Amino acid sequence: MVLQIFVVVFLFTQFLLAPAFKLEDILTDPKELPPEFRDFLSNLTEADETLLEDFANAGLSNSDEDVVNAIAALKKKSPELGAKVEKLRTISKGKIAALGPEARGFAEKAEEIGREFMARFFTDNKPTLNDLIAKAGEIVKLYKALSDDAKAEYGKQFPFLSKVWSSEETAKLISGRN
């Protein structure tokens, strides 16, 4: 889920998507972001961002074991940053574990899509805006296919992401680019 949030924020900040589209259309108040994530983002230094890029290269696209190893390596370089990343991962994994099978399957697949995207971003084969929108479209399609109960369950654990994936503005953005 941490990756989904990274992808969502990246989606709306790095590419400055469409002039008529504003993050505020989905995120009316920055406080809607999970507090841990909001605090994490607001306190990143340039050095932290560089370390996170290395972290992404080392583990975001791989198995849980690779992610654990990447966090350990990050902690060696910056114990404080490593601890923050580990905390976010623990929170996300706990929220995913609390989901029922259908919602958990969606969350895991969405995280996999996020990992694939972020891993590619840190390579020489950087994704384009259309690639990014296609990945968001994959997640939205999966979200829409969930039962109402699974959507409600997911929304309780991840209200911000649920709002993004169900937003009319997100749907317009995706349909306008495909």
UniProtKB/TrEMBL annotation:
Localization (cell): Secreted
What are the recorded GO MF terms, alphabetically? lipid binding
Chief place of localization: secreted
* Signal peptide range in chain numbering: 1-20
Enumerate the InterPro entries for this protein: Gp-FAR-1 (IPR008632)
Q: Which organism is it from?
A: Necator americanus
Q: Which GO terms describe its cellular component?
A: extracellular region
Judging by the UniProt lineage, the source's domain of life is Eukaryota
Task: Keywords in alphabetical order, please.
Answer: Coiled coil, Lipid-binding, Secreted, Signal
Is Translocase set as a keyword in this record? no
Q: Which Gene3D superfamilies match?
A: 1.20.120.1100
Stated name of the protein:
Fatty-acid and retinol-binding protein 1
Keyword Secreted on entry? yes
Q: Which family does it belong to?
A: Belongs to the fatty-acid and retinol-binding protein (FARBP) family.
